[in-house]
């Protein structure tokens, strides 16, 4: 596992080290990059960070995003195009605020943009919007996906054409406020508050043929330790927090995610898109900034990790998307990446 050295002219991070890679775009702030290859070109669907008045809090009230803008490039290292607004919260009948981490999919000539936002009750739901272009503009469905809740949708299409949505997040992502099947506005602010009980898990549901509704009730994407036991709520270095992503490598299903308050990107491997997934290790050590959220995509014969940090602003609420190469070892494990060099 080797990393390319940063150029000596590049600024050092607050920790005195150099950044492994530089921001993909500097004109706008972007985060939570969901990368896909459509017709040979790389498209990145990020959150579009903006500065707002909300003070920082544990529920992410300071992430006040209002719209989405798509990035695209011919290949990693080529010039990046920042496309015009693809969808604005004002165009989504049910949504009020906080257009958080999105994802996209393609099927039969239509592109689908999946996004979380808060409804009038203050509950996160997941919406979908469609377009004939990968960069939009997208037209939102009038209602969120039936049975959806929480945040961070990631849609994976398997080799047999079936698509699955992974989603969820604790703390501000509200997974812990949906355990009864209904949103409880008075529920815990963080998690289940049971460190010795199984942690809250990401959810997975297959999408129906329309790609705009669940074909089934969401179920837990169970993450277990080497002994097959569910990761526990108190295991904060390994348990799921948010930012689920799925990629398939050598026939195995790799569920990767953020550990949130411990700031790691980690992964777990299974033999079915539903899991269970056995925890394997870290993908990315903590970046500058509180959040860490990524995607993994293959292009040009290599695997790429798209991620984000706060290099440009120094503020967690104003992040910038980056990319670096990701390596699978011969035994299927993933090389841990340090986002800093020197
Ligand atoms: O960008 C807002 C939220 O912060 C995302 O939905 C989370 O994954 C975290 O990055």
What is this entry, summarized?
This protein has 342 residues and is mostly beta strands. The protein is 0% helix and 37% strand.
Tell me what you see in this structure.
This protein has strands at 18-19, 29-38, 41-49, 67-73, 81-88, 103-107, 110-118, 124-131, 139-140, 154-157, 163-167, 203-206, 219-220, 223-224, 242-249, 252-258, 265-270, 277-284, 295-299, 302-309, 320-326, 340-341. The chain is an all-beta fold and 342 residues long. It has a 5-stranded mixed β-sheet with strand order 14-18-17-16-15, with no helix packed on it. A 4-stranded antiparallel β-sheet has the order 2-3-4-5, with no helix packed on it. Strands 6-7-8-9 form a 4-stranded antiparallel β-sheet, with no helix packed on it. Strand 7 (110-118) and strand 8 form a beta hairpin. It is globular, with a radius of gyration of 18 Å. The model has no long low-confidence stretch (mean pLDDT 96). Beta-L-arabinofuranose (FUB) binds at residues 31-32, 47, 60, 63, 100-101, 151-152, 169, 242-243, 291, 293.
């Amino acid at each position: 596992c080797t990393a390319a050295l940063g150029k000596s002219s590049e600024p050092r991070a607050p920790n005195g080290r150099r950044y492994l890679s530089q921001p993909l775009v500097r004109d706008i702030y972007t985060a939570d990059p969901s990368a896909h290859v459509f017709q040979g070109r790389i498209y990145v669907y990020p959150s579009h960070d903006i500065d707002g008045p909300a003070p920082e809090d544990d529920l992410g009230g300071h992430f006040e995003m209002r719209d989405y803008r798509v990035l695209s490039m011919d290949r990693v290292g080529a010039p990046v195009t920042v496309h015009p607004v693809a969808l604005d919260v004002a165009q989504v009948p049910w949504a009020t605020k906080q257009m958080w981490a999105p994802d996209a999919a393609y099927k039969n000539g239509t592109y689908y943009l999946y996004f979380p936002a808060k409804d009038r009750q203050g509950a996160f739901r997941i919406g979908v919007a469609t377009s004939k272009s990968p960069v939009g503009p997208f037209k939102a469905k009038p209602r969120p996906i039936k049975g959806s809740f929480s945040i961070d949708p990631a849609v994976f299409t398997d080799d047999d054409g079936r698509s699955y949505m992974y989603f969820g997040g604790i703390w501000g992502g509200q997974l812990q406020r949906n355990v009864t099947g209904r949103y409880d506005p008075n529920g815990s602010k963080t998690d289940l508050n049971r460190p010795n009980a199984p942690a809250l898990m990401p959810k997975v549901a297959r999408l129906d043929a329309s790609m705009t509704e669940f074909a089934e009730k969401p179920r837990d994407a169970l993450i277990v330790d080497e002994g097959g036991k569910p990761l526990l709520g108190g295991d904060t270095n390994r348990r799921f927090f948010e930012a689920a992503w799925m990629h398939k490598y050598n026939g195995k299903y790799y569920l990767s995610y953020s550990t949130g308050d411990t700031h790691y990107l980690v992964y777990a491997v299974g033999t079915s898109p539903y899991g269970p997934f056995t925890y394997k290790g870290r993908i990315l050590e903590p970046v500058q900034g509180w959040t860490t959220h990524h995607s993994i995509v293959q292009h040009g014969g290599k695997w790429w990790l798209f991620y984000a940090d706060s290099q440009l602003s120094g503020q967690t609420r104003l992040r910038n998307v980056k990319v670096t190469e990701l390596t699978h070892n011969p035994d299927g494990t993933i090389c841990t990446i340090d986002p800093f060099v020197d």
